[in-house]
Amino acid sequence: MSVNPNIAEVVSLMGESSRAAILTSLMDGRFHTAGELAHMAAIKPQTASFHLAKLVEGGCVIVEKHGRFRYYQLANQEIANFLETLLSVAPPPKVNSLMQSSQLKAIRNARTCYDHLAGSLGVGLTESMVEAGYLEKEEKEFKVTSKGEQFFADLGIDIAAVRKKRRSFSRACLDWSERHHHLAGALGEELATRLFELEWIIRLPKTRAVKITEKGRLGFREYFHFTI
Amino acid sequence: MSVNPNIAEVVSLMGESSRAAILTSLMDGRFHTAGELAHMAAIKPQTASFHLAKLVEGGCVIVEKHGRFRYYQLANQEIANFLETLLSVAPPPKVNSLMQSSQLKAIRNARTCYDHLAGSLGVGLTESMVEAGYLEKEEKEFKVTSKGEQFFADLGIDIAAVRKKRRSFSRACLDWSERHHHLAGALGEELATRLFELEWIIRLPKTRAVKITEKGRLGFREYFHFTI
DNA sequence: TCTATATTTCGATGATAGTTGAAATATTTA
DNA sequence: TAAATATTTCAACTATCATCGAAATATAGA
Fold first, then answer.
1. Is residue A20 scored above 60 in pLDDT?
2. Chain B, window 153-212: residues with a beta carbon less than 8 angstroms from a chain A beta carbon
3. Is B82 in contact with A89 (CB distance < 8 Å)?
4. Cross-strand bridge partners of residue B209
5. Residue A75 in 3-state DSSP?
6. Protein footprint on strand D: which nucleotides are under 7 Å from a CB?
7. Could you give all domains of chain B from N- to C-terminal order, each with its CATH number?
8. Is B15 within 8 Å of chain A by CB?
């Protein structure tokens, strides 16, 4: 038997349904309390506690204590990237109720993929930017054109500052619901942050689905030539 | 509870140690019989049979029958890419014997990563090509320079033909043993194939470690300016 | 100080999943 | 045709692991 990295070890932590549900819930990039995560994963608080301990021990999740509350978040960008990969290769969700159907529709429409935008919105904006010549699509990444530098500056994003960040600049992230790429990386994050600041999109409680505001609808149409 | 792709489903298939061992063994890109895989994974044939059935059922592995033999292989490029990712995030192998230490050394030195080269050799060749100006490193991919086009043509590789393939052209694959990138994608595959043809490297039985021939040593030094 | 709330810990239970001996099946060889 | 080899199937066993009721611990609020 030959020596190999032990892929089972890293993978088995995520291959259990309650832990998978917790991790997926944390893909909105926010902190959540143990009770919230238990509710989101539809398990009892003590079960959530048990699993969260494993996730923290295994390095997937970090915890901060604030009084009686324990706030949990994904440990780092690497874990999030890995979960993205898992989400893109996993079978699509099964829908068993009208409520789930509605939830799925919202998630497919617009959601956070850790720190950047995904769904129809994420892919739509990305493709609009490519079509307008602000971004150039490569195989696994996007390039910002000079025209695009101006575009982002006008939007209030300093590209030079984004480039200085010690992480991937602009990855192509495969969107699990659209099966096309949306913009990820430092630039994807900055764009999402800016759009939240502009209140073109707002976060919703208990879900990583994102709501597009009326102001946003107008802004996307006018600025991105993307009609929702 | 919100609807999500079920990452546990895709992941639990690989998060079991016997199946993980089988999948890792199949990362040399070759067909292997059930008996060989059982031996490589250090399990009984009936256990291997049980797990292989699950892997085939789950779409990770394909099987071809030739008489009394059953030849198993990874189902496709996507599965291999996914396993690469797992290998790069998994903890390094533990070594408990002199034999394992020796095997690990061989694997770290030069091995196949499905269809392209990895280890010191894979990373070394890749970095030599970048340094010589034949390849340009981007974040997640490599670009072939015009100088590089000539280089590959001289080596007997038709870049235009490689580009026509319906897959990633030249990915940057994170090497689990070197923690740097080696060349993957269609170009990485073509390069490995050519090097095997030239007999600069040869395959070994029962392991994805690759042996560098004396001819190869000379060729790498002269042609790639890479000294082994 | 007592009550309420958030979370963790503990112990028991039941289900699941992996392993293997034995046997059966499939194919090849002499 | 019988023997050998490769693989699969079956059944039983054992270990592991997730879940949850109950209780304990930690913190906040009245």
1. yes
2. 168-169, 171, 176, 206-207, 209
3. yes
4. B111
5. coil
6. 5-10, 17-23, 26-28
7. 7-75 (1.10.10.10), 86-224 (no CATH)
8. yes
Q: Find the distance separating the first CA and the last CA of chain A, reported in whole Å.
A: 56
| Encoded tokens for A141 | 């990444």
Q: A48: Cβ under 7 Å from strand C?
A: yes
A161: pLDDT strictly greater than 60: yes
Does the beta carbon of B108 lie under 8 angstroms from any beta carbon of chain A?
no
Is A47 near strand D, with its CB below 7 A from some atom of it? yes
The DSSP annotation for chain B comes to: ------HHHHHHTTSSHHHHHHHHHGGGS--EEHHHHHHHTT--HHHHHHHHHHHHHTTSEEEEEETTEEEEEES-HHHHHHHHHHHHHSPPPP--SHHHHHHHHHHHHSEEETTEEEHHHHHHHHHHHHHTTSEEE-SSBEEE-HHHHHHHHHHT--HHHHHTSSS-SSBEEE-TTTSSEEE-HHHHHHHHHHHHHTTSEEE-TTSSBEEEPHHHHHHHHHHH----
Residue with tokens 């994170």: B174
Residue A128: exposed, middle, or buried by beta-carbon count in 10 A (0-12, 13-18, 19+)? middle
Inter-chain touch A7–B207, beta carbons under 8 Å: no
Which residue lies nearest D10, CA-to-C1' measured? B46
| Alpha carbon of A227: minimum distance to chain B alpha carbons (Å) | 26
Residues in chain B with pLDDT < 50? none
What are the pLDDT digits (tens) for A119-155?
Answer: 999 999 999 999 999 999 988 899 999 999 999 999 9
The answer to whether residues B144 and B170 touch, using CB atoms and an 8 Å cutoff, is yes
